[in-house]
């Protein structure tokens, strides 16, 4: 009897609970798809993000920095979205692939601290667009709150004593490291960098030539159509006069 009870089918209440959980998770997954579509249209300049092929809640990203202390850096990162995202208090996680020496980035884990910008995560107000805007902003920050608790206190202390250039030196090392590792693609990453192949130069030239030809043809079409219209109109008028 005991064994039969151990393998008893789930009760109606258990089945209903499982169905509700499935529906809830399905709605969250659908919301995530909508959020990514919105993100593609509003992502901050210089940032590229693509979801994983295998895990919808893992996104891969890269940010290109062109000015400021971190200029020329190419920093790759991974976004981890919890199963209950986007819910109250459910923060996404952003982890850089290489070291980023910054007060708001944990030295050991390389994770970006979101709390300075989002002390409380509110799903009605906070989305990945805002998170990535914040991510970009940290590379250009020039001021930090006094007596603030930060992810990397040593970086903050060094920044405030930047007259000795130690902070700048550490930042430059991070930039160099990012460039040295740009072709080291994370396993499973949907954003991959490959070295330039001279064999592709001729293909590139041919492609651009075709694009230029197509563009020139498109520009000539309106003129040709206008000429045809004038010729047709003249022919009609001539026929009318002959009649």
TrEMBL record:
Q: Which InterPro entries match?
A: Ub_conjugating_enzyme, UBC, UBQ-conjugating_enzyme/RWD
- Which residues are in the UBC core domain? 27-180
Stretches the record annotates as Disordered: 210-243
**Pfam families cross-referenced by the UniProt entry:** UQ_con (PF00179)
Return the Basic and acidic residues bias intervals: 218-235
Q: Which PANTHER family match?
A: UBIQUITIN-CONJUGATING ENZYME E2
Q: Can you name this protein? A: UBC core domain-containing protein
Q: Which organism is it from?
A: Globisporangium ultimum (strain ATCC 200006 / CBS 805.95 / DAOM BR144) (Pythium ultimum)
